[in-house]
Amino acid sequence: MKYAGVVVDNNTNATDAIYTYKTDLDDIRIGQKVMVPFSMHDRRAEGYVVSLSDKAPEGIKRFKAIESVVPDVQLSEEAVSTALWMRDRFLCRYIEALKCFLPVSDVKRKTKDPFEDIEPEVPSVKELTGEQTAALARIGSALAERRNRIFLLHGVTGSGKTEVYMQAMKSVIEDGRQGIVLVPEISLTPQLVGRFMGRFGKESIAVLHSRLTPAQRGAQYKRIESGEVKLVIGARSAIFAPLKDIGLIIMDEEHETSYKSDMSPKYDTLEVAERRALTHGAVIVLGSATPSVVDYSRSESGVFERIELTERYNKNPLPTVEIVDMSAEIRAGNRSLFSQSLLDQIQRCLKEKKQIILFLNRRGYASFVSCRECGHTMRCPECGISYTYHRQEGALMCHYCGRRIPMPKVCPECGSKLIGGFGAGTEQVEFKVKELFPEAAVERLDLDTAKKKGSMESVLKRFGKGKVDILIGTQLVAKGLDFANVGLVGVISADVSLNIPDFRSSERTFQLITQVAGRSGRGSEPGLVIVQTYDPENPALRLASAHDYKGFFEMEAAVRKTAGYPPYSDIYQIVVSDEDEELAYASAGRCAAWLRKKLPPGTAVLGPAPGVLVKASGQYRFQILIKSPYGSRRNTSAAIRKLKEIYTEQKGVARLLTVDINPYSFV
């Protein structure tokens, strides 16, 4: 007789526990899916075996028995161990963590090959620069020793980080081991897959990302589990790929916020990578031209080993960045979206057959719709945030919950006809560019145009082949794309990211400007970047225009240290929400008071206060922020875990309490 610890697939706080079942099945193993009787009524439920023992736990005399094992589902012991660790690390539920490692589909159905539209890039291994050679020597030494080490590859845009990735991965595969390459955006996956396909062949590569159908994802999982795959490429969920012998994990553009999950479990991809690499004795390479302040700080203190690539591969200088004061443009009589300098340079590039990227991190035609007569702003009744106007659809859309309503002809508050849109989005930029440059081939890439499957890839493919003169987009065009013929990048409004209510707004602005600027001048000629802003003296913009990462880091780290923000603390965001506004606020107040009593001196408990998004999906939201000094995370997490347990048992409290550790968005 054996005794199995089972996590039952019942996703509630009340049943978030490991239940002990007895079994006389000889082939029972950790990681198997089983059927068990559950609850007072012994309803049949699915569960996962997370522990096995020959001895019964003390104090329990009667045990229910496992009914059967579900065939063809087997998590590795390492996956189970990592999931149990995630539950404590990210304060999620057991079943949420376990499901990260599970495929989601019956793979018996025929499905489209996810590689079908990806063209292998013919490998052209050029001579490595001295910096690339030195970087590979350091990474290769750690790989040869099979020793868990973490490298921060800090390389300017165009310095050849991808070639370092590929050659490091080549040595891993030749050693009989496996690797994972993570990218922050699905838009980057086809280009990277094409390069790795050209180097390693299609048969040895699998892809995992959210744009795959469930059947495609299941088929890719089967290929990985079978052992035929040597390399997995994908967005953050690819970190859970069921590989048996991981030798190298690469995180490209490691600073990107998309590596932090915003849905439960709210995991940090890097932390999961560190855990898996430690178990496998694997090396991690984090690549970026603009590392996160937290990770660069860890390289300063020696937690990470930093490798610098300071020059572009082709020896070209970094692009020239010109900051344009849009207030001065208005004073000169120019009230358009585009400065005269940007218009002149677009015209020049079109004449010289150079391509142009125009960047604005806001989609839609107008960012809000308001009445000029009474000042009424159209807001979503569910979320309380302003609607965005989408001209092509003739509709107002809430970018949080997706609600749509027709564009009103008169103000619903006062009846005035003076109602219209304010603030530009990418759709308006596209409309104006086509008016000004009718001879140019113009396309837009944002979440609206990328909804249709394959549309994002086809736009980038056309741009790569030179069939698009001007590409307009949100941050989808700012990251990792490598096109040699881009001569000009225009940042329509740098102020969008500067004015986000978040302590990271300066960091995000510096990163976005640097990254989007890096799309320019990657061929044989220098590039130009024009940054439009109403705050031309902003330090983040000035340092980005000078390509001075070190200067930015030193400035930002000093501010963070004074204010007690990461890397000098961990930030916990607790959100309490309910349809009843008073109940939500009162419940949040009780939580904050309890935490102030339980957490040690030096731990700041701020709030409760209305969330940045006060109302979402009909729920009023109040947040508590905790600044837990560096080194105290374990104790803070234990206290919040206890709070969640107490909250689950309480009556008369708000319906939902969620926790996010070091969130990248406070909305």
Percent strand equals 15-25%
> How would you name the oligomeric state of the polypeptide chains in this document?
single chain
Indicate the radius of gyration in whole angstroms: 26 Å
Count of domains: 5
Strand count, sense and barrel status of the largest sheet are: 7 strands, parallel
Mean of pLDDT: 89
Overall geometric form: globular
Describe the structure.
This protein is α/β, with parallel strands linked by helices and 667 residues long. The protein has five domains: 2-99, PriA, 3(prime) DNA-binding domain (GIY-YIG endonuclease, 3-Layer(aba) Sandwich), CATH 3.40.1440.60; 130-309, 3-Layer(aba) Sandwich (Rossmann fold); 320-363 and 428-559, 3-Layer(aba) Sandwich (Rossmann fold); 373-424, no CATH class; 569-661, Alpha-Beta Plaits (2-Layer Sandwich). The chain is built from 18 helices and 27 strands. The strands form six sheets. A seven-stranded parallel beta sheet has the order 8-9-7-10-11-6-12, sandwiched between helices. The chain has a six-stranded parallel beta sheet with strand order 13-23-22-14-21-20, with helices on both faces. The longest helix is centred in the last third of the chain and has 18 residues, at 581-598. The chain is globular and about 85 Å long. The protein starts with a strand and ends in a 6-residue tail after the last strand.
Short account of what is shown:
With 667 residues, the protein is of the alpha/beta class.
